TrEMBL record:
Native organism: Lichenifustis flavocetrariae
Record protein name field: ABC transporter permease subunit
Recorded family membership: Belongs to the binding-protein-dependent transport system permease family. CysTW subfamily.
Subcellular location: Cell membrane
One CC-aspect GO term: plasma membrane
Residues of the signal peptide: none
Residue intervals of the ABC transmembrane type-1 domain: 55-269
Topology in the lipid bilayer: Multi-pass membrane protein
Pfam families (UniProt xref): BPD_transp_1
Length: 279
């Protein structure tokens, strides 16, 4: 084996042990009963109303956080790349985005409870300084929108990190040529820049969807069992004392793999198309 391959051996070993083999184990378990016999009952149980509801709520939260993260992340990325802001702002934003995009799980859930909970910092400040009771408006950090806002904390920075290289790929010659031909800035964006960026925008939004769809620690730490989403239901089936049905949990995981896998495949296809334009 050439020495150059030795550097990637740890990657392949890691992917085999912690990605491929567990995935195959889940797929096999989804088609087995507790005694290890082949069955399709686990897949039939996925059609139960509470499971369909859990999948649907998870899809809604993932879609809302993906669209919100894509919109605000694209605005941030465009502001630091295209609008001539001070030079120090871009590396500062990129550094923060690199940290924030990986800040999730129980620490993030606690941070938002301490910030937007009933006795959170922002909630108390709004009430004491402005006389505005956030929770009287119907807002609840333990609800659909509360979890969506929490997800935006890592969705927006991830969008910034992925979209920035695509914005850098917009060639100055394209804008100059369009201006020479008499195009307005709106026509440049509508006919040139946006069509080139569209695959990157759509692909990154799909990646954000898959990113939030598989999140479990943040949702569990923030809402517990208050919100019926598929990751919490999966956790309850595999590790819970009441809903324990390990093989049904494997089937739930298989459904999640299919959904996130389709999102990632679509992202890779769109990214490949975008890279071809930006070369």
């Amino acid at each position: 084996m050439p020495l150059a391959w030795l550097g990637v051996v740890p990657f392949f070993v890691f992917a085999l042990m912690f990605l491929l083999l567990p995935t195959l184990f889940l797929i096999a378990g989804a088609f087995q009963d507790p005694d290890g016999h082949f069955t399709l009952q686990n897949l039939r149980d996925l059609l139960a109303p509470n499971i369909i509801s859990a999948y649907w709520i998870s899809i809604e939260i993932s879609a809302a956080s993906a669209l919100g993260g894509a919109f605000f992340g694209a605005l941030l990325a465009a502001a630091v790349v295209l609008n001539g802001l001070p030079g120090w702002l871009r590396p500062t934003l990129m550094t923060f985005s690199g940290v924030a995009s990986n800040f999730a799980g129980l620490p993030l859930a606690f941070a938002f409870l301490a910030t937007l909970g009933r006795m959170g910092l922002v909630t108390v400040l709004l009430s004491s300084l402005l006389g505005f009771n956030l929770y009287r408006t119907g807002f609840n950090i333990l609800s659909f929108w509360g979890l969506t806002i929490t997800y935006l904390y890592f969705q927006i920075p991830l969008m910034v990190l992925i979209l920035t290289p695509a914005l850098d790929g917009l060639k100055k010659e394209w804008r100059e040529a369009s201006q020479t031909l008499g195009a307005t800035p709106w026509q440049y964006w509508r006919m040139i820049a946006f069509p080139v960026l569209w695959p990157s925008l759509l692909g990154t939004t799909l990646l954000l969807f898959a990113n939030s769809f598989g999140a479990v620690a943040t949702a569990y730490g923030l809402t517990g069992s208050t919100l019926n989403i598929v990751t919490i239901l999966l956790y309850a089936q595999i590790r819970g004392d009441v809903l324990h049905n390990q093989n049904l949990g494997y089937a739930l995981a298989l459904g999640m793999i299919v959904i996130t896998g389709l999102s990632n495949v679509a992202y890779i296809v769109l990214r490949t198309r975008s890279e071809r334009w930006l070369k």
